[in-house]
Structures are given as C-alpha cells and as structure tokens.
Amino acid sequence: MDTADAERIVRLISTYQETLYRYVYALVPREQDARDVVQETCVAICRKFDEYDQCKPFLPWAYRFAYLEVLKFRQRNRRAATVLAEDVVELLARQRADQSELLDARLRALEQCLGELPAGDATLIRGRYQASFSIEELAKRVEMSHRTLFRNLDRIRRRLHDCITRRLAAEL
Amino acid sequence: MNESQRRECESLVSALCDGVLDASRRGQLEAMLRGSAECRDIYLGYIDMHARLTMHPRLSSGMPLSADVPEGADDAAREDSMVLDRARAPWSSDIAVAADARINASDGIVTTARRFMALAAALLAAFVVWQFAVRWQTQLSLPMIHAVTGGATIQNGAASRVALVGDRLGRGDRLCLAEDESQATLAYGDGTRVVVHYASAVEVPADVSDVDLRLLSGTMEVDAARRPLDDPLVFATDHARYVVLGTRFRLYREEEASRLELDEGRVRLERLTGHASEVAATDVTAGQVAVARAKKDAVDIKPIASGRAELLQSIRKAGTAVVFTQVADKFATSHAERGLKTWRLGGAAPLASFEAKIGRAESLATMGDAVVQVARLDRRGVVMRWWPGTATAKSVTLPQSSVRSLTVSPDGEFVAESGDEATRIYRLESAPAESILRLSTVSEFSTTGKAWCLALTPQARYFAVGFWDGKVTVHRIHRRIHGDDEAQRDGAGTSTLVFERKLAHTPTHIALAADGAALAVFTQKDGLLVFDVATGERRQIWAPGAASVTCGTFSADGDHLVAGLSDGTARIWSVANGNPLVVVNTGHVPRDIAWLPKRRLLATASGDVKLWRCELQ
C-alpha cells in the first residue's frame, strides 16, 4: 500500500467509522461488542484495500466486511445473551442496507427532536447517554425505581421515534 | 402489526437498548423481528438512534445545561445538572489538584525553575495544540469526495487527475463532471453534504476567503449541517454569495442568472450594490426560489411551487421505465435485466411478472391490459408486447440495422424508429396464433438531418422529431382510419409538416401533447421550451445551463408538462402559463416519469421506482 492509499484509507475509515458502528450495532446490539466488531472490520478493510474499486462508493464495500465480521463474532459468542439468531441478523442486515438513506435522514431529524424534549426528559436522556451512568446509578440519582426509569426511557424513545417520523413525513 | 404488537415491539427494543432483555424476552423479540417487517423498521430506527447517542453523547445536550433544569424542578434533577457539568470537563478538577500540590511543594530557586519549565512546557504544548487545531480546522473546511459515479476529474491549473472516493479537494482544486449521468457527493467535516450533478463544475477558492465552494456551472444540491452563526457555510456564484444558516437547498448556475431553491432553513443572499463595497443582503426562506441575475437587477424571490408531494411507495430495483396502465390503480415497470412487471398501487409484490433480459426500455406504454416497450438490443430496435399473466411476450425486431432513436405511442399501437436509412412509423399488428408481432409501415421520412429524438401522439396522428442540427419538426400523419381514404391504400401514408423551428443546440428530449397542440423540447443551450404548434409561440419553462431534463411528457389532457431533471427533482408545470405547480425532491435522477392527473399520481423511475401523490393548489 503506498502513502496515498494509506492516507485515503485513514480518511475513509475516520469519516465512516460512525456509520460502520451504527451498521454493526444494529446486528450486534451491545456497545462493547459492536466496537470490537468495528475494529476487526477496519483491520479487514485495510488488508483488502487493494481490491477496492475507488470509483465506487466506499460504504457498500465496507458493509460487506462488517457483515462478515458480525458473523465471525456470532460464531465466537454463540452462547452470549446479547447475540441475535443468525436468520434475524440476516433479515436485519438486508433491511438495513435498504434503509440506509432513510436512517441517515432520521438521524438528522433526531437533533431537532432532542431539542424539543421537555426538560425532565432531556435530563434523563443526558444522564443515560452523556454522563454514561449505569442504570442503577441513574435510577438512584433521579430517585426512581428501575421499573419507572425503564418505563420513562421507553416513553422518551417512543416520543423521539414518533417525532422523527413526523418530521420526515412533513419534509416529503 | 396492530397497536399493541407495535407497543410490544417498541418496549422490547427499548429494553434491549438498556441491556435488560432476558433470554425469554429476547426470544420474543427475535420472533417478532422474524415475522414483521414493521417491527424490524422499529428496531432499526430505535437501535440507530441509540447507537448515535452512545457514540455522540453530546448530541443529547441540545440546550445549555442551566436551561435544562427549569425553575421548580426537583433537587435530583438539579444535582444531575451539576453532575453532568462536571462530567463535561472531567479533567478540570484533576488539573486543579495537581497544580495545588505542585505549588505547596515548591521551594526557593528550584521551585522557580520548575515553574519556569512548566510554563515553557505549557506554552509549547499550547502552540502544538493550536497548530494542530488550525490544521484540523483547515481540513474540516475542505470537502472530501464521499461518492462518485461516472467520471469526475479534479483540476488545478494544468494538472488534472481522476477524482476518487476519499480524495480531498484542496485550495484551488476544481471538480468537473462532464460525463452523462455522472454525479459526485462532497462531504465536509461537519456532516454537510454537497451533491454535484453532471455537466457541473465547482471550485474551492484558491485564496483564503470565507467562501467554502464556488459553483462555476451546472447544479449542486446542499444538505447543510448546523454551524455556528459566526462561522457559516458560504457558497458563491458569479452573481451572489449564499450564506447558509442551517438548511437544505439546490443552487443552479444558469447562463444568465443564479437560481436558489430552498427546501428547508434560511439562506442569506448577498450582492455588491455597486457603491464601494456595500453589500445588499436578502433572506430567502424555506419554500422560496431566488433568482439573482447579472448586473444590478433586483433579486427575484417567489414561492418554488404552490403544490406539495407525498411519497406513497418506493420499490427498489424495479426498473428505469414506468407507465400507468389504462386501469388507473395499476402501473407497469421495465427493468433491463429483470423484465416487465405490473403492480397495484400500494402493493408490495408485483401482480404479474415477465422475467427475462429485455434491454433498457427507450419507451414504455400500455395497450389495454398489455404492456408495450421498445428497447435497443445489439444496435437494433426491438418491440415487445406482453399480456400480464402470460409467460411469454410477442416481439419483433425493427428493420434498420443501426437505430438511433425509438419511441412508442402512448396507446401502444405504433412505434417509430430513426436510423441511417430513414425515419419510419409502424403500426403493430398481432395475430392470436403467432408468437411474433408484425409491422406495417404507416409513414416514412427520408433523413434530411439525423433524427436524435422522437415523439408520437396516440393513434400516431402527430409525430415530432428533434434533429442533430437543432431542428425540430412536427408532422401531421395522414393514414387510412376506419375506411376513410385519407392515405394511400397500399404502402406508407403521407404527412404534412405543421411546425418547424431551428434551435441553438441538439434537442435531447422531446414531448408532444396528445392533440398535437403543444411541443416541449429540451436542449442544453435553450433549456426547456414549450411551443404552441399552431402559432409558433414559444415559452421558456426551464433556463439552460443548470440542471438538464432527463425525461418528460405531457399529461393526457395536455394541461400539464412533467419532467425529471438531473438535479434529482421532478417538476410539474402548467402548460397554459408555464408556472411551476409542484417540485418533488425525488432522491434519485428520474430516467422516466409518468403522471396521472385525475388521481394526482406521479411516478419516477431510476432503478428504484417511486410513486408520489401530488396536491396541485
């Protein structure tokens, strides 16, 4: 691999790392596992970069490696509680590839929908994601039972999901 | 899925996000994901949102923290707010403690020297960080090629290279897309995407100015990320500067003007007034089009169109041609490799399929239940007529060995071909027992100029031809109809030239209203024109120099002209006054378009086929 290719691959991977992570996370829905799979995917991409046709979009090519790494991960962790069945992974991978553009559009709308959350909901979401509190810690801090906390997070996610769907429908 | 199943699916996915899904509920979720595409949609939407928030936790702090906890909110929430404040700057307290420790331990000259060295080290570190930040900021302000289809080149002075995915445009670099159907997407570090369409050129200014990208010719489409007010994204053309204030828009560099169409957000349009360096600024808001001309004309701002469109259905890989059948709730699609299919509106699966390699449709029509297409195979025209529900199609190869253009009449009964020998119109005939179609010549024209595009009306009463040299003609075809001896009984009929005009460039697309009263022509130099065939009166519908027309047709009643453009839009205009009625951002470059005014249904095809409901106001 020459210097120009090395530069290009670093640029591509750093640009698309988040997109790859989102793709992998849909198939391996646990943060640390998804990060491991993305790391393996990046290594595989670097190894095979010579085969990449640079006139074609990068992501569909990279997704193929990510999917293979997801399958390998499944093989290694068959008994883990978070691993989804292979046929489900396949269905999700296919549907996700079809909806790639739509999901990107949904994320753009997410920012606006987060801004519309009532203060209490915004605090919960920040506690869950920004401060990265564990569920136990967050429940203690907001003085809620686990059950109430889950119910509230479930409600907020539904609210965000519906808000995004409404915004996209209004855009068309 | 009913409402309760939907809720169940949402709750299971939410529990998965929080890591509290036990084995039995995981099995339940898997069963739902297997059985329901809607649950998979929910899953993908939730998980993608969760992944994004996990990766970019700051996104969840959309507003200042002090404003997050309202007056009267409980103490826990306030405490959270403070905790989160600390979480935002995890290093600050450690640094403070370390500094205190160092000060307490200091003594005499040694301490002073240490302090001096620490200060020098801090300054050096700050300089390195500043340098890095400057370089990083520069990198962020330069676009990278995110995707490219067809050929694109990057030019800088005399040097030129092929543009590849992952290349970054530097100062003075010019990205040129000359090839038909080429397109490049540029990505900025902040997530802004700029799609540059074919026959367009953009340049990153060589001088360090606040202009991020200059549109030299053609069209670009922008989906801009939010930026700080003091560091907005700035695009420019020869006519104006466009300061982007969080928005989605299309910018066109036409021959005599620059045109901005704003879908979302706000853009400040700035122009020099001619008095010293005084700048006149105008705000353009969502739903408006602003046309800035050369010289000192005022900027013309008006609504893009009064109507709206809603996406009803999108079918992946259905083909590059689409037509509504004469039974209004059905439509047909053609795919070069996968064959012909008919669909019911809203149906996820085709009603009927004829699966075969049939070539890329040049024109598609329906005749009663049958679907008729003309395609080019091995430089010859091939006509195919297929009755849905049957496993085979009747076909015929047209006589000319080197065909240039082909079309089929909207009623599927006539085809026209032009080649080196002549331009001919044929009637299609088919006997029930035969597997092939037969052709009978209706009219023949000697080639007095090479025909480049053709259009036929129903029953082939009128025929339009666009020639290489820019000439366009409309002919009234005389032929024997129901025993009326209007044409010669044997051999080809006759025709009368009813319209002729010479345009500045080769017409690439031509359409004729069903009654032959209006002719639409697109050329790169003239734009999209509509002629009144009887009076010769001409109206420009779309200016030249920016986006090109990729397909177009009149509505059956002749009231509307619809066209697909290279900027990914589909547009409907009123033929009576030329006003735009609807602009649809289709998300693909339409290769074929169909419009059913009574049902307000528009179909665009570009590999994927999309159906839209359009409200014309």
Gross geometry of chain A: globular
Major protein interface: A-B, 69 and 77 residues
Number of strands of chain A: 0
How would you state the average pLDDT of chain A, rounded? 85
Sheet-strand content of chain A, in percent, reads under 5%
Report the C-alpha radius of gyration of chain B, rounded.
Answer: 31 Å
Write down the overall geometry of chain B.
globular
Uncertain ranges of chain B: 62-106, 482-491
Q: How far is the first residue's CA from the last residue's CA of chain A?
A: 44 Å
Distance between the termini of chain B: 35 Å
Oligomer state of the chains in this structure: heterodimer
| Structural classification of chain A | mainly alpha
| Helical residue percent band of chain A | over 70%
Largest sheet of chain B: 14 strands, mixed
Radius of gyration of chain A (Å): 19 Å
Largest sheet of chain A: none
Task: Count the DSSP helices of chain A.
Answer: 8
Order of helices and strands of chain A: HHHHHHHH
The structural class of chain B is alpha+beta
pLDDT < 50 stretches of chain A: none
Question: Which features characterize this protein?
Answer:
heterodimer; A: 172 residues; mainly alpha; 78% helix; globular; B: 617 residues; alpha+beta; 14-stranded mixed β-sheet; 4-stranded antiparallel β-sheet
